Amino acid sequence: MFDFRKIIKSQQHNSTDTSVSTHFYHDDEEPYPAEADGVYGAMPVVDSSLLSELKEVKLKFEGEDRDTCVLVPGLLGNKIEFTLPGGRKWLVVDNWDDVKDIVEDPFIASLSSLGSIHDRAVELYYQIKGGQVDYGLQHSYQFCHNQFGETYEGFMPRWSPDNPVVLIGKGYGATTALYLQHLLSTNYFGQHTSGRMVKAVICLSAPHRGSTLPYWLGLEAGSKCVVSPLSLLQLFLSFVHIVCYFACLERLFSFKLNDKWNLSSREEGGEQSIWSAISARSKFAYFGDNFLVDWSVEGARMRFAGEEKNKHFLDPDCVYINYITTGSSWRSKITGYYWPRLTWRNLPTAIISTFLGQYKMTPDVEQHVLRTSSSTFWENDGTLSVYSQQPPPHQGVHMNIVITEKLFDPVDHELTPGAWYNVYVEDRSTTVLFDDEPFLATLPFVEQILEINTVKRFGEYLSKNVDSFEYYYIFLVEFFERQVCYLKSIKSNGNSVANIKDIQYATKSYLMDSNLERNEKRSNDKAGEEWCRKINTIELMNSPSKMLYYINNIQKLHSTVEGGSQDLTSFKDDFSTNGLIPSGPMFIKARHKMTTEDYRASVQQ
């Protein structure tokens, strides 16, 4: 297991070293060179007396001694459903359907879906602890909204460092959970709180470093909260204000903004006129205390590159797991753009991915806002780039793991607290907690359509021939990209084509041989590889049937080598490829730990 004390020691000697692993990012690639001073990038100073008390932590999601888990929603909230005439509920999507299958009786928070991270974190605290929401006098005065909100009984009134919670967040909810721990560690609520009140923070697709999606939707880069008047974002804000203006619509969508901002009509005690609602002119839109700022790259940087008091340092007693979703897009060799794969199961995010995968900002914006090339943010999971999901550069990383099966999911094992476990996920079905459900798949009429035999057979046919369809898909996309490049060259250079490179069209062999190079190659770092090897060894020892199978295959391997003229290494890959030497859990797993001798003795009886 990677030693946390080594991280502390190494970062005290070299405060600019921001990562344990060099497989994924390096200090010279850090997009914030102007801020990488002596303090920036350093871990918090930990009392040496605490180092001896560090121990591995095991998360328990079931049973009488299970951990108290709180699910923190993102921008879309917990679920999307509509009330039909007669009181029936029409469920469009449940964002926690996968987690609720694993976690027993979790508490599900209900936060302002479009509020700022600060406001959402405060609401989350009072929903867990209980009491009337108090956003803070200074904060409320600065952003001109009401200081107090709803009153909650509390999920866990006896919440304390001795009775901590596990926070599980998706997307915007993950950064909300982290900010809540920051407020607890700084005693923001004035009740002698501590970061140890959170046992673990589990993040999925968290915008740690911000997203470029708000800029594509219409947020003016460098302004933090100014929205272009002719943009999709302005249209969405107008929709939100109109919903809040009419009480009937507010009950239907429940953005939970009226308590703070008084966005209802003046006849109902609010501050909006119908014109201000249509044009989205309000303190909520103008003062920057909303999701637009904290979701952007600039807002994310303010949380870890600003003043020391605003930085969130990881707690040495808390476990941090960061799931980074990848593998949903491929890179074109013609333009370098990223396109969604045919295996993408969520149509709305696939459309957004197409635009994010080629969204390029001006050089001035890249220098002063992104502080890196736009192409850094092109690889994405539909709404968020892979780069954005990297933890802030001043927070330590235990190891990087490319998860290929559930056996290696850290959440199911004992973990060392104090730094991040970065888990790169290409297929969510390999994780313990999360599974990728297609959008709208929970609708009754969609379920009925999927049950039709013809639709089933067509789906099976597509899944069996997905490689062939992907080849033609890639061929067509790159074909049109070549044509666009050709036309641009003609336009800029007249009839000359001297500057056009690689005009010849790709063959099938070229596409198929280079298919792997279209996705970013990631592998476990040294610490992650050692950890996976350890987990695999433990699994092997705990499964007698697997151990015997493994030993039998080793004997076959050596007998084959001894009987032939080839060496051992020439057979190693063949045996692994054919499954003769297992790499993961196989057969049954013993309920109790047994040695191979115990297993043989039990068989002979």
TrEMBL record:
Keyword set, alphabetical order: Hydrolase, Lipid metabolism, Secreted, Signal
Q: Which SUPFAM superfamilies match?
A: alpha/beta-Hydrolases
Q: Which GO terms describe its molecular function?
A: hydrolase activity
Per the record, the domain of life is: Eukaryota
Do you know which Pfam families this protein is assigned to? Lip_C (PF24708)
Matching entries from InterPro entries are given as: AB_hydrolase_fold, Lip-like_C
Main location per UniProt? Answer: secreted
Q: What does UniProt give as GO cellular component?
A: extracellular region
The Lipase-like C-terminal domain covers 98-185
BP GO terms, sorted: lipid metabolic process
Cell compartment(s), UniProt: Secreted
Its protein name is: Lipase-like C-terminal domain-containing protein
Q: Which organism is it from?
A: Rhizophagus clarus
Lineage start: Eukaryota, Fungi, Fungi incertae sedis, Mucoromycota, Glomeromycotina
